[in-house]
Prior knowledge:
Layout: H1 2-24, H2 30-51, H3 63-83, H4 89-116, H5 123-150, H6 163-183, H7 189-208, H8 216-238, H9 241-264, H10 269-275, H11 280-287, H12 300-308, E1 312-317, H13 319-324, H14 327-339, E2 343-348, H15 358-365, E3 373-375, H16 376-379, E4 388-392, H17 401-404, E5 423-428, E6 448-452, H18 455-468
Parallel strand pairs: 1-2, 1-4, 2-3, 4-5, 5-6
Helix pairs in contact: 1-2, 1-9, 4-5, 4-7, 4-8, 5-6, 5-7, 5-8, 6-7, 8-9, 12-18, 14-18
Amino acid sequence: MGAHILEIGYLFASILYILGLKKLSGPKTARSGNLWAAVGMTVAIFATIFLYKDENGNNLGNLGLIFGGIAIGTVIGWMIAKKVAMTAMPQMVSLFNGMGGACAAIIGLIEFPHAMHAENPDRLILLTIFCGLVIGTVSFSGSMVAFAKLNGNMKKDIRLPFYNILNTLLIIGILGLTACLSMDNIPNAEMWVYILCAASFLYGVLFVIPIGGADMPVVISLLNSFTGMAAAFGGFLYDNMAMLTGGILVGSAGTILTVVMCQAMNRSLTNVIFGAFGTGGVAKAASGDGVQKSFREVSPSDAAVLMNYATKVVIVPGYGLAVAQAQHVVHELEELLESRGVEVKYAIHPVAGRMPGHMNVLLAESNVDYGKLVEMEDINPEFSTTDVVLVLGANDVVNPAAKEDPSSPIYGMPILNVEDSKQIIINKRSMSVGYAGIDNDLFYRDKTSMLFGDAKQVLAKLVEEVKAL
Length: 469
């Protein structure tokens, strides 16, 4: 009877996962979708703790350790989630993703002795264990490197000599060792398993260290899909339908998102992984061409006049907006301009910020109407009829070099065509390059004006100036 209730619990949890994932696709239902999926996970965990029985009819033991671990994890997770700044969300996603990969790897390390030393080792089970171990370890070490890069602990992208050859040989070695351990009773198997784990860890590090710039969101999404796959192998190993379903959903969702983001950037996944965006091209761009360029600076007063008497204003939010925590002030400016009869929209690039949806979440925090957030492919045709574009802390996603300079590292990446509008106001702290490390020729064009300063302070000043008109 208990086994049947346990299966029903898993089925109920799986349904909640799917419904929660569906709700996460819409901004208005995302919060409830997250809650539904969390309830599903809670049901699966407690159903396993209280209803699972082994082949001898025994319930799970070590309940004190289990509940102690849950309590500690809940407190730590709650505190981090409450304190983390919106700008640090990508780092937190990488950190939590890495923890999921580590859990999957630990499952493999714990289970392989039992499976390997069984009287008749099940080769399929061994292969499942090693697949989860390898993918989970790669996801863990890769996510930790991604965390260090996003958090500023690792500021330079590293590309070793013969990088592609080294990585290819390493992955061939990992696949070969996995096959040997799964199919044959090789001597000193335990030692080779730990060598396999170390090689997977090294591959995860080498896989991520040369990647930077606009490719980081793609890598984070790819690592997320790895963690989902590793969890799915764990679900298959334990014959746990809830774990299997959750892993498949995370793995497939991460894979789909990775493919969509690559398409949005007009880059292949192979190019992202092996192209090492942010190394040679960045160094070349950072060195500059030696030509002194001039730019035009505008005061908040003049910028306020331009926007106040415009018919249509498009705001381009970027990472600088998130850093300044200026989402509430920009919403105030938007409402003020609309009260003066100005049409205001927000242009959202697929990789604006540090991860997909970063700007959407940020603006939703200040209750910006989601209908005003317009995706890149829909807003680009509207720039030619826009009077003023206000770019807030965005750099690479409005860089015309993506269309005009074949030697640029971002060449081919679709961008927001802000240069088509009548006037462009760009807010930055300085003329320094953006996250991709390349200069932006847009800053030096005739219809572009630079409005320097912290985004929050500049927007507050703009609000004051518009009110005074």
